[in-house]
Each structure stands twice: as structure tokens, then as C-alpha cells.
Specification:
Order of helices and strands: HHHHH
Structural class: mainly alpha
Number of helices: 5
CATH architecture: Up-down Bundle
Number of strands: 0
CATH superfamily: Ferritin, core subunit, four-helix bundle
Strand content: under 5%
CATH class: Mainly Alpha
Length: 170
Amino acid sequence: MSISPKMEAAINKQINAEFYSAYLYLAMSCQADALRLKGVANWFNVQYQEEVAHATGFLNYLQDRGGRVVLEAIEAPQTEWPNAVAMFQHTCEHEAHVTSLINDLAALALEEKDFAASQFLNWYVNEQVEEESTADQILGDMTLAQNDGGAMLTLDRELAARTFVAPVIG
């Protein structure tokens, strides 16, 4: 049970990227709270928890394969956005970036003929489809609601209902 040095390094890089995503969404949650959008803050807090779970999934996989986890410094994320629409625009851009990182990992797994990693990464590939779709849908709703206080209040309340459910990864 061993993993190639190249795949080990790439997964360590992805662990860092997932923790960065967690920091980014935690920053967005704090900013939404400062904007008095408690539902949006909740949505981003749940997203933060999901990203920590994703990082932990990669970490556990690497250890299960006999790899060494190397935790690097996490870059400080942006901490201020003018409004919720800007936060979700950034979310859409960020999730597209994460999708490209996951796709690069999946391509490396095929190149390395690491079929265990390829199978493991399928969960993340599918997860990214959901992540991008959800962020895009909320951005569309936010864009429609941004100039209507009642609509924004309703959307904020809908986002407040989101709860964290630990994903079963792999």
C-alpha cells in the first residue's frame, strides 16, 4: 500500500487548498454576519465545515495509502466584500478553480495508473459539480433579490435553514 511521490505531493497540495477554501468561507461567514445577513453567514459557515471535511478526507486517504501528510501554511483569504452578491460571485469563481484542481488530480491519477486514487477522486469530481451548481443558483437568486429587501430577507431566511451533514467521502 504505497502512493507515488508525485501523487503524495499533489494530494498534500490539495489538502492545503481545501483548508484555504475553509478559511475563505469562514471569512465570508464573518463578513455576512457583519452585514447582518445571518442566513448567508450560516450558509458560509456550513460551507466552511464542508471544506474542513473535504481536507480531512484527503488527509485520511493519504495516510491510508502510506503517504506522509505535510501541512503547509495556509494563505490568508480575502476578508471583505461589499455585499452578498459579491460573496457569491467570488464563491462561483473559487469553486470553478477548485474544480480545476480536482480535475488535475484526477488526470494525474490516470497518468500514474493509480486506480485507487482515481476511484477516490470520483467522489470529489461529483461533489464539485454540486458545489458549482449550488453556488451558481444562489448567485442567480441573490442577483434577483439584491434590490428588493423583502426578497433578500426571504432568501436570507432560506439560507439560514442549511445544516452541516458530514459527507461520506470515498
